[in-house]
Amino acid sequence: MFRRKVKQETPVDQPGANGASPVDAALRDELGLYHLWYLELRLTEELARAARTESVFSLAAWQLRVLPGETPHPDLLEQAAKLITVSLRNYDIPSRIDAVRFVAILFDADLADASTVAFRIKGDLQLRAPSAGKWQAGVATFQRDGLDADALISATLRRLEEDARAA
């Protein structure tokens, strides 16, 4: 699964940002994205559901290509997080892997649908969250690219790298 050190989380009994419920606020990070542990939990649940019902879903990922050791400005990351969140359906699960990579579970989205969404968001990021680096996107779909979390995550990250090499 993904590995990222979790920063301070909002306690469940405190109200969240923008009037979010305390439970919802506890599930989200400082950028308004779901914590990585929650994405992993939902990914595990979705794998079981999709296998049981023979349905499909996809993982989409975006990354900002930067020089080694370079860290993007926090305002750029916040802008990217907001753009990704508003571009997805309210029941998809957007999260952040690390400083330059974002990922989302796209429920009931096959490869064609997920690719359309991922690359549309990539274009929006390039235009609305400009940086010295270019944005990349990658997609992996349940069954086509793997039947377990590790296989899907690996395929998604591999596709990010393929998009980076193609640019």
What does this structure look like?
By secondary structure, the chain is an alpha+beta fold. Helix content is 44%, strand content 16%. The chain has a domain at 55-166: Reverse transcriptase/Diguanylate cyclase domain (Alpha-Beta Plaits, 2-Layer Sandwich). A 4-stranded antiparallel sheet has the order 2-3-1-4, sandwiched between helices. It is built from 5 helices and 4 strands, in the order ααβαββαβα. Helix 3 (74-87) packs antiparallel against helix 4 (111-128). Strand 2 and strand 3 (101-107) form a beta hairpin.
In short:
By secondary structure, the protein is an alpha+beta fold.
Give the strand line-up of the largest sheet: 2-3-1-4
CATH H level, superfamily name of the domain at 55-166: Reverse transcriptase/Diguanylate cyclase domain
Q: How much of the sequence is in beta strands?
A: 15-25%
Judged by helices, strands and strand pairing, the structural class is alpha+beta
Rg over CA atoms: 15 Å
Main beta sheet strand tally, sense and closure: 4 strands, antiparallel
CATH-derived architecture of the domain at 55-166:
2-Layer Sandwich
What is the chain-wise order of helices and strands?
HHEHEEHEH
